[in-house]
Every structure is written in structure tokens, then in C-alpha cells.
Design brief:
- The complex is a heterodimer of chains A (396) and B (187).
- Chain A is mainly α and 396 residues long.
- Among the domains of chain A are: 1-113, no CATH class; 262-396, no CATH class.
- Chain A has helices spanning 2-23, 36-48, 58-84, 117-121, 143-151, 155-162, 172-184, 188-196, 205-218, 222-230, 237-250, 254-262, 270-289, 294-303, 307-312, 315-339, 344-395, and strands spanning 54-55, 105-106.
- In chain A, strands 1-2 form a two-stranded parallel sheet.
- Chain B is an all-alpha fold and 187 residues long.
- Chain B has two domains: 6-90, Tetratricopeptide repeat domain (Serine Threonine Protein Phosphatase 5, Tetratricopeptide repeat); 96-175.
- Chain B has helices at residues 6-22, 26-39, 46-55, 59-73, 77-88, 96-102, 108-112, 116-138, 142-186.
- The longest helix of chain B has 45 residues, at 142-186.
- The two termini of chain B are 36 Å apart.
- Classes of the chains: A mainly alpha (396), B mainly alpha (187).
- The A-B interface holds A 43-44, 46-50, 327, 330-331, 333-335, 338-339, 345, 349 and B 117-118, 121-122, 125, 139-141, 143-144, 147-148, 151, 155-156, 158-160, 162-163.
């Protein structure tokens, strides 16, 4: 027993000597890729195919997490992260959250702290909409040509013509076409600027107005969008109602949502009706998800490893935790029963198994918040989808 | 495409080849060049075509193009000789299948690509896991042998195989960049 402990201590001292500079890294500064610790772990990761699920990879995450959450939180969150990064753990991950360039999930410390990812990533912006200048004409000499370009997917060509100075005189039609092109190019700031400047007397006002409020919602300016929609007095009350419902759902303003959806539906087209039904489903999902508690997830995972993650809503991570902790448990049990507690195998497998077990409890505690945030983001994407589709089918 | 005259079509194909080359897709670029040269074997940028063919390890076509480039630029006899000498010692393309077959013994696929340290590391990792598993099995500790060594072995063994295949790609690209760099420095 003494010899085994001495060996483990010697390895730990050697590791801490090489990893000391890395372990003291500031959380804002990820460890230097030239350090011995990173080079050694990277070399092993390359030979085992590990480290391809998350960015930053877990060997970069560990030192920075230790200095951020302290030694216990840092190590436990890293073990949970390793557990999640396997093929089974990633099975239920929504692919749309991965970065398309490297197919990794970009995730920093926010996954293990109670600060919502949405809040960190999305700053509220207020876009100034210029006042409408009087006496603008509605002439559109190239109307059909530009529309042809937009409908056949040549959006950049349309933008190249529309955004050049000196080709067209300023008019509501020009603002509308510029805004619509920017909207299709997903440049929502420009889109809301030009679409918002189309005058109320223009026959294009309805189209421009609802596209501009949708662009504002894409930018996260839901409150501004609601204020604009409240002031709308035109004929398209079905779209007004749909967008108000969507904006209040995005803001998590459930009483506002119930208020807007309470009256009888005025939907005249199939796509608006479908969108309203989808929003109602998202509303019920969102109110149901609010009731989950982190401490229940942690207790569940302490009783049966992975159960807390299943409770939080991620089956694959739960199964991965169960298999990994179960395997380490089985190996440790066999080593203890045949070789005794002091054997180096019992100590090594027991220690690793314990870290994975505790990491699974720690991760389950935070997974409720994390999975809620991911679900929230996915629902927001679905809400925006339900805004964009009716715009295309109703207004064009 | 049929209504376009042959010259314009040829220029278009050369542009497509350039675009694919810049996007790092040299195989498609070479296909477009083949099509362009079938229409008109004399037009187009011969130096660029030569580099593209070299990237696909098609050195006969590359040499043909670079000779035509030298003729049009009026190079001296020494450059002709140097280029001919360079094409005598073209790099050989390594095959991914060979690396995969060699990787049956962990590390051999790495050695094939000249990655000695990585090969040794892969061999050592697999050696440690297999030795541990065998020792556990010999001591009749079968749960430890299967779970404690079998699962890590899937990572070290399969990971080593896929790393060997990656190394083939890296090595082929590095060798041909070196060759093309030498060729440009001769001109």
C-alpha cells in the first residue's frame, strides 16, 4: 500500500510541476499552447481521437476552470465535461449549436455557472429608426427586375445595384427594396433601418413594417418591437397579433403572451394559423420547463449516476454518465474484492471513478440551467422561424 | 454552355480551375483544366496549370505545362535543365489504404509517414493498455481486463488508425508544397 501511494504521489508532484504554470493561468487567458502540459495532453488526444467535441478542448479548459471555480469546481466540471464529450454523451446534442467551421460545440465557463448563456451572448441593442422625410415618391422603375433577382436567390447582385449611390433617387420603394434585400442577406440591423423608414402612406408600408419588426426581434430588441407593434393601426391584425405573441414569448413575458393570445384568433391564412399553434406549443413547453430544480437533479444523480441529467432533459448524457461511473465502479469492486483496498489498481480506478461520480453530480446540478438555456435558444430559433415563414407566404 | 464560343468556354474553365485551386480543391481544378486543354491545348496560364497538376501528383501533365510556360517566357537553357532535374526527383504519393493496413500494428502507419515520435507514442499507449489487460486476464480479473483495458483500447487503437490516415494527408500536402516551392524558386 505504501509503495502504491508513493508512486501516485510522485506522479502527482511531477504533473503539478509541469502543469503549474498552466494551472495558474488566468480564466481570461487560456493556457499557452506551447507549454509542456498542453503539448503532452494534445499529443495523447491526437493518438486517441479525443478532444473533438468541445472548443476549447478539456485539457485547455481544466487549468482555466481551476483558477475560475477553485480546485474542486474546476476538476469536477472538467470530469463532467469529459464525460459529456464522448460519442454517447454527444448523441442528443442539437447540431445547430455546433460551429459549422470545426463541428465543435463552443462552450466556456457559462455551462457551469448560473449566468444564462443567452444573457452573456446577447446584449440589448437599440436601433434608431430615422423619421420619415416628407414628399417621397413611390416610383419603382426596376421593381420587377429587383424582385426577379431576389426571388431567384441573387441577393448579393440585388444589393450591389440597390446600395450604390446615384442609381436611384431616394424613395419609399428604394428603402423597402434595400431593407428587404438586407433582410434576405440576414443583415438585420440594416434591414430594420431601411424598412423602418418606409412611410405610412406608402402601399408597401405593411410589408416593410412587419419585416422591420421581425428584424428587430432577430437583433434581440423585443421590447422595441412590441412598442412599435402596439402602435400599428393597419389592416393586418393577424400578423400584428402573431408578432406580439412571439415577441412576448421571446421576452419570457408569459402574462403578455396570454393577454395577446386570449382573444379569438383573426388568422385568415393557413400559415399564420400554423404559426400561432406552434407558439402555443412553445408556450406550454416553456412554462413546463420552468419548474425543474437543480438540487433535485443533483440528488437524482447521487442516487443513480446520470438520472439527474435524464430529469433535466438530456437522455444521452445521463446514459453516458451511468455507463462511465458504472464501469469504474465494477472494475474498482473487482479489484477491491480480489486484491484488497491498498492495491494500486483499486486506488487508481477508485479515485478516477469517484471523480467521475462527483463530476456527474456537479454537472447534473448545473445541467438543469444549461439544458434550459439550450432549449430556450432552440425555442427562440423556432419562434423566429414561425415569424419568418408567414411573412413570406402572406405578404408577398 | 453550348451556346458559348470555344474560346470563352476555355477561359471560363480556366477560371473555374483557378477558383477551385484557391478553395483548396485541386482535384476538381485539375478536372476543369483537362476539359479546358481538350478544347485548346495552348491557352491559359501554364505556370498555374502546372502547379495544379503537381498538387494532384500528375507530374507528366505538370511537366508539359511548365515546358510550355518556359517556351512562352523564353527561358534560358539552364532553367530548362534545372526544371527537368527537379522533375526527375518527384515526391511519391502515399496511400491512405497502405497507412490503414500498416496500422494493424499500432504505430507502423505513423512511421510510414515519417512521424516517429507520434508513432512511438501510439505504440507505447497501445502497449500499456494491452499489457495491463493481459496481466489482469492472467490474474483472472476479467471485469478489469474487459472494462479497464478493453474500452481504453478502442480509443488508443482506433484513434491511432485514424491519426495515421490524417498524417498521410498532411504528409502528401507538405511534400507537394515543398516541390511546388522549389519549382517556383527555379523560375
Amino acid at each position: 500500500m505504501h509503495r502504491a501511494l508513493k508512486v501516485i504521489l510522485a506522479v502527482a508532484i511531477a504533473l503539478s510541476a509541469t502543469g503549474r504554470t498552466a494551472l495558474l493561468a488566468q480564466p481570461e487567458h487560456w493556457p499557452d499552447s506551447g507549454s509542456l502540459y498542453i503539448r503532452a495532453t494534445d499529443a495523447i488526444a491526437r493518438q486517441t481521437g479525443a478532444g473533438r467535441s468541445f472548443s476549447p478542448a478539456s485539457n485547455y479548459y481544466l487549468p482555466a476552470a481551476v483558477s475560475r471555480f477553485g480546485i474542486i469546481g474546476g476538476i469536477l466540471s472538467t470530469f463532467d465535461r469529459i464525460n459529456r464529450s464522448g460519442r454517447i454523451g454527444m448523441a442528443a446534442q442539437n447540431d445547430s449549436f455546433r460551429d459549422p467551421s470545426d463541428h465543435r460545440l463552443h462552450e466556456g465557463f457559462e455551462a457551469y455557472s448560473f449566468k444564462s448563456i443567452t444573457e452573456a451572448g446577447r446584449q440589448p441593442i437599440h436601433i434608431e429608426i430615422p423619421p420619415v422625410a416628407p414628399g417621397r415618391s413611390n416610383a419603382g422603375s426596376d421593381w420587377s427586375f429587383i424582385n426577379y433577382l431576389l426571388e431567384s436567390g441573387m441577393k448579393r447582385d440585388a444589393a450591389a445595384i440597390l446600395f450604390q449611390d446615384g442609381i436611384y433617387a431616394p424613395s419609399d420603394t428604394l428603402s423597402y427594396l434595400r431593407g428587404l434585400t438586407a433582410y434576405y442577406l440576414k443583415d438585420f440591423g440594416t434591414a430594420s433601418y431601411y424598412l423602418g423608414s418606409v412611410g405610412q402612406t406608402s402601399p408597401l408600408f405593411d410589408q416593410a413594417f412587419f419585416h422591420s419588426t421581425a428584424s428587430l426581434m432577430e437583433l434581440g430588441c423585443n421590447a422595441q418591437s412590441i412598442a412599435l407593434l402596439e402602435g400599428y393601426n393597419g389592416a393586418r391584425n393577424d400578423l400584428k397579433r402573431l408578432q406580439l405573441e412571439a415577441a412576448s414569448l421571446m421576452e419570457d413575458d408569459f402574462s403578455g403572451y396570454l393577454n395577446y393570445s386570449g382573444s379569438a384568433s383573426e388568422a385568415t391564412s393557413y400559415s399564420v394559423m400554423q404559426a400561432e399553434q406552434s407558439l402555443a406549443r412553445i408556450y406550454s413547453d416553456r412554462t413546463a420547463a420552468k419548474e425543474k430544480k437543480p438540487w433535485i437533479a443533483a440528488t437524482d444523480s447521487a442516487i443513480i449516476p446520470g438520472l439527474g441529467k435524464v430529469y433535466a432533459g438530456n437522455l444521452s448524457e445521463g446514459i453516458a454518465s451511468f455507463l462511465v461511473v458504472g464501469s469504474f465502479g465494477a472494475v474498482t469492486a473487482e479489484c477491491i474484492s480480489k486484491k484488497g483496498c491498498g492495491d494500486w489498481r483499486s486506488i487508481t480506478f477508485g479515485a478516477l471513478g469517484a471523480l467521475f461520480y462527483l463530476g456527474n453530480i456537479y454537472g447534473s446540478y448545473f445541467s438543469v440551467e444549461r439544458i434550459n438555456t439550450y432549449t430556450h435558444e432552440a425555442q427562440n430559433q423556432a419562434i423566429m422561424y414561425n415569424i419568418h415563414v408567414p411573412l413570406r407566404s402572406v405578404l408577398r | 454552355m453550348r451556346s458559348i464560343p470555344a474560346e470563352e468556354r476555355c477561359a471560363l474553365l480556366h477560371e473555374k480551375a483557378l477558383a477551385n485551386h484557391l478553395a483548396g480543391n485541386s482535384e476538381s481544378a485539375a478536372t476543369y483544366l483537362d476539359e479546358a486543354f481538350a478544347l485548346d491545348s495552348l491557352s491559359g496560364n501554364m505556370l498555374l496549370s502546372s502547379l495544379i497538376y503537381n498538387e494532384c501528383y500528375r507530374f507528366n501533365d505538370g511537366l508539359r505545362c511548365i515546358r510550355r510556360h518556359l517556351r512562352t517566357t523564353g527561358a534560358d537553357a539552364r532553367t530548362y535543365r534545372d526544371v527537368a532535374n527537379l522533375y526527375e526527383k518527384t515526391p511519391r504519393r502515399h496511400s491512405e489504404n497502405t497507412a490503414l493496413v500498416l496500422s494493424i500494428i499500432p504505430g507502423l502507419g505513423h512511421f510510414y509517414n515519417g512521424a516517429w515520435e507520434e508513432g512511438a507514442l501510439s505504440l507505447a499507449l497501445n502497449g500499456i493498455v494491452i499489457t495491463f489487460g493481459a496481466a489482469q486476464a492472467a490474474g483472472k480479473m476479467f471485469v478489469s481486463a474487459i472494462l479497464g483495458a478493453g474500452i481504453p483500447l478502442t480509443y488508443t487503437y482506433m484513434g491511432g488508425n485514424s491519426r495515421a490516415v490524417e498524417l498521410v494527408e498532411e504528409r502528401n500536402t507538405a511534400k507537394i508544397s515543398e516541390f511546388n516551392f522549389k519549382l517556383i524558386s527555379l523560375l
